[in-house]
Amino acid sequence: MNRRHPAANRAATAWGICLALLLTACTPTTTAQRPAKPDARPATGAGDGTATAKAAPFPSTYRVPESAPVLISGATVLTGTGERLDGADVLLREGKIAAVGRGLTAAPGTVVVDGRGKWVTPGVIDIHSHLGVYPSPGVDAHSDGNEATAPNTANVWAEHSVWPQDPGFEAALEGGVTTLHVLPGSANLFGGRSVTLKNVHAVTYQGMKFPDAPQGLKMACGENPKRVYGNRRTLPSTRMGNVASWRQSWSEAVEYQRDWTQFEARRASGAKDVRAPKRDLRMETMAAVLRGEVLVQNHCYRADEMAIVLDMAKEFGYKVSSFHHATEAYKIADLLAEQGVCAAVWADWWGFKMESYDAIPENMVIVDAAKGGCAIVHSDSDEGIQRLNQEAGKGMAAAARAGISIKPEHAVRWITQNPARALGIADKTGTLEVGKAADVVVWNGDPFSVYALAEKVFIDGATRFDRSARRMLPESDFMLGQPAAPGVSP
């Protein structure tokens, strides 16, 4: 039976008015929605924070909006580079960080924000989210994150399931999240391509797509793929089946890449009657990983399986950017640091399945402590994403109980600089450095306190959330006309 929300009639009427106005009243065209030219720059690097995306058939249409300069004055500033500045100022201009320091002056027309008693950090980045592909409300019709039809679905792209009207985006924005990485689910060995989004309002996902951010390839270890396909009496049904299936697919990808390389070489030499290999979208994604253009984001819990994956990556010549969930990362912290692999973890989730049992609350701290270690706090939750700052605070508390002192200026990197590095966008965001995107959060106090609230959130220098301004409170198109609670007017 097709049941409608009590406010459905009001919503339908509102949409009817919008359509009558050719949608101009409800979906105004902004600079963030103008078509973009494809980026044809070659990719460089893999997981080192400097990678860029190749030209793609679904380019970002996001554009930095025009906004007045902003000077945040007299605040406690955590730059995300490990530095803390007390009584400092941050100047935002033309979408970039223009200056950070003390005694900065504002030119005429600059909006001045009194930062006394406030804390300022880079925008929070969630490296593991399913917002948009599993949007609210959580009904079957919105279950678009797992293409659980084959162990290898590297051909699918999570961005093609993203619903920009997901109310979760706004809830995350109120928690200081300016950038998020949306992945397919973990049913498959190769789940498909992931996408990095700016947390901005847009009619299409392309209006949210982070310009030049490399895509990821979601891979999954362990229980999930072997359970999904073992129940169907097909490969894989065991962990050894997982590994065999991975290696077979990577072997095919190496051959696919070789065939295309040979084709390009023959065509460049002027050879006649050269026929291109048949295009295979699964292999195309995997070949892009081999070239360093797509970054591997690997769901994996157990230390032994992570070590196997690293050996396999060495065998086939690709790099793992980060392991996600990684509840046993502390056991191989030195190995991860040695190979430049990040571990994106929870503060204290554990025990919900066998591979998550051997977890400890000091996991992120031990990963972080290794020389060159890269610890990241992630959410994997539409609720947890609203409080990533507090999740990092839990890690600080666990460290303190273990006799390790973690200062705020260091811990903030777990939710800013480090995820930017693992997503290949560290040259663009993640720290308050001159020339980087003005993705900034003003907090009402210590951001790692349970009482912390994001008061203002800037993305590319434009105010996207202001807790003190009622009209600035975000609200998705889906929530328009819907009461906050039964009998309560919005």
Mean pLDDT: 89
Give unreliable regions as ranges: 1-54, 486-490
Q: What is the helical fraction, as a range of percent?
A: 10-25%
Structural class: alpha/beta
User: Order of SSEs, N→C?
Assistant: HEEEEEEHEEEHHHEHEHEHEHHHEEE
- Write down the Rg: 23 Å
- Write down the CATH class of the largest domain: Alpha Beta
CATH topology of the largest domain: TIM Barrel
- How many individual β-strands? 16
Can you describe what's shown?
With 490 residues, this protein is an alpha/beta fold. It has two domains: 42-63 and 124-429, TIM Barrel (Alpha-Beta Barrel), CATH 3.20.20; 66-122 and 435-466, Urease, subunit C, domain 1 (Roll). Helices cover 24% and strands 19% of the residues. It has eleven helices and 16 strands. It has helices spanning 8-20, 168-174, 223-230, 239-268, 281-290, 303-316, 333-338, 363-369, 388-401, 408-411, 417-422, and strands spanning 70-78, 84-93, 96-101, 111-114, 119-122, 124-129, 177-182, 190-198, 216-220, 295-300, 320-325, 342-345, 375-377, 440-443, 454-459, 462-466. Strands 1, 2, 3, 4, 5, 14, 15 and 16 form an eight-stranded mixed sheet that branches. Strand 2 (84-93) and strand 3 form a beta hairpin. The longest helix is centred in the middle third of the chain and has 30 residues, at 239-268. 48% of the residues are buried.
